[in-house]
Amino acid sequence: MGYNLRAKSVLEFLPFIVAIALAFYFIYVAIGWNVIVSISKWAGLRPDYSFSGFQQYARMVDDPLFWKSLTNTFFLFLMMPLCMLLGLLIAILLDLCGKGAGIFRNILLLPFALSFVVTGTLWAWMYAPSNGVINTMLRAFGLESLTSMWHTGEGTVMWSILLALIWQFSGYTALIFLAGIKSVDEDVIGAAKVDGASTFQMYRRVVLPQLGPSVLTNFVILMLFSLKAFDFIWVLTSGGPGTASHTLAILIYRVLFEQTQFAYGSAISVILLLIVLAIVVPYMYFSYRSAER
Amino acid sequence: MKRGMAVSIALAIALLAPVVLSQDIKSIVENVNATGQLEVVHWWTAGGEKEGINEALNYFSRIYPKVRVISGPIAGGAGTNLKQVVKTRVVAGNAPESFQCHAGYEMYPYYEGDLLYNCDDVWSYMGLESVTPDMIEEICKIDGHYYCVPIGIHRTNVVFYNKGLFEAYGVEEPSSNMTLEEFFDFAAELQEKLPEGVRALGLGDRNNWEATHIFETLMLAENPRTYEKFINGKVTAKELVPALEAFQEYLGYVAPDHRARTWDEECGMIMQGKVAMLIHGDWAKGYFTANGWEYGKDFGAFVVPGTEGWFGASTDAFVRPKSSVNHENAIRWQATYVTLDAQKVFNPAKGSISPYTHVPTTIYDEYSREAAEDLYSRDIKIYPSITHGSGSPEQVLSQLNVIIGDFAQNPQNVQGTANSIINAIKYVEHPVQWDII
What we know:
Chain A is mostly helical.
């Protein structure tokens, strides 16, 4: 009897054990391995795990390209407030829209459903200074002064990337906000209406204060994307002109695979990991705490 | 006496070794009942090149029908994505039987890690040395041994132009019978006659390397000695200035939004009549012909002025990594694609030129025939392309692409750019010393 019970509980836990074992190996062992490589003497393609100290980290401090890439990575954080503001506005409009909301919801989600390679190529065509649709339209409306070099100009490239990413992510953030708005208790909204609250007051006083979890989810998703942004930028600009749109992910790719400097590339990856952890750990802590309540 | 005997035995082994080796490879290559797999990783996915590699692999399958052939295409111009996949697999000890690589420095990280088999066996058994131009042999060697076997070659120092545009604006078609300075004068005259929005010269450098390609060609046109010093890591900032000034002049005739386009989109601009001439590699010919243009009728080509007598080589080859499952099939693969029949089907389909002089030039179209005749000519000097992985270490190329990409966007600071290039070169070891002159 006791044996059967034990066998049964092992069988019940088996899927979890397998999942945990796979996650442990492919995520945590890989992270540990990456940290070891970053403090190793590994140069070239032949692994060499002998300890070299923290010289790769010291090298990073003196590498202007690292700092530029870090600055650009943080620049993409601007995406968070802008996407969230636009997403919230769209969510409220969709909420007010009533019957047609379904169609708009699908249309707005479409950019997020597309691969970054597709949208990167699309924006590269739209931004093309001489014959791209944006400059062409600006010229057609007599707004020649607003035409720009967009993703090909050193001063405008990061703003161009930001604008394209806001386009891609706003629909998604709107949906998360919309789900949050829809989950607000109907009775509370009904009570507000009975008390004579205007639409603006209702959203301002009743709905918005209850969107905390949606804000947090959007915040983490957008921040994590901006930290690991690679494919979209690689397709749109290859990190250029020069190094103007290098982010940490672009720099890691170039150092690892173009220059075969595994130890240095791994050291930069560790820094990126630490930044991600600094964001994810508090998020998880607050999520679990609010779930416990 | 004993010592003398030992020396004799050692000598006998040394003398017999090549015989044993050639017998080994003979039995490997002649075993048409070989089994197992052959995974060939390459970056040929576009029209023309895809057909080329398929032809070569089909040819292999006809000879070794029991070998399971796996074609592993990884899209991404000039192998940018392939390098990422292959390096990861090689480091993990899970390499394919063979993968595509530019001959020259691109092989070096694998060689340095002792991750490649030397290919002396195939070169020797197939008698390739007697039919390969000397410089191409050198490009395939590291420390006196072959580490790859070339399959096709593209010429990099070519100007392509839209013939209709010259006719429409009454300008005599250009040719390589001029100096670089005269070429720029010609571009200036042409620019004056062209309407607004049409440019005398082209560049589409969204991926950076397209700009480096033009820079390296102009560097050779300015002074081959500078080019040689560059690839040997011995160039000075002062010596780079003329090449950068030439590139600066070139950029003066290019549309300001050149960075918005890739090389193929720039070729499209030539076809649309928005750009008159472009310095590029002769895979551009493949683009034009694949889009319905005819050489000599719709577009023309000539060697970049100042590089007459030179052949810039982008050498496509395959290597044999050590951690593959079935190394013997990799030997069979190399020994197969260098045969006359395989070369005859691969190169015309791919649009490249065979590295082997015994392949008749009659198999090519008019453009490739002229290029092949140049490559096989005894008077031609071949130089390894920096941009296409042969001439300089990958760390140099990676940084050069960024520096030149930046210069192409802001071509004011010649001296600063020259200094940046020197900084990128001076700390990188240059174990291969080229002698191109």
